[in-house]
Amino acid sequence: MENLINIQSLMSAIIFSLLGCAVFAVAFKVIDLLTPNDMWNEILEEHNNALAIVIGSVAIGIAIIISASIRG
Fold it and tell me: What DSSP string describes 18-51?
């Protein structure tokens, strides 16, 4: 019976996923440090929906860039 899961491909996927998450976290923290106000306070306490939409868009953009770079 054939091996249904290629271990090398599985390990590559896990490593790239962890690497992508780490790069995403660092990039998101840099964006947080570059904003003049406390981003989480503005979103949660002040209910700034516009900032939440912008931060969500930035997160999606960073994720797309990381995904494209991993695919090569």
Answer: HHHHHHHHHHHHHHHHHSSS-HHHHHHTS--HHH
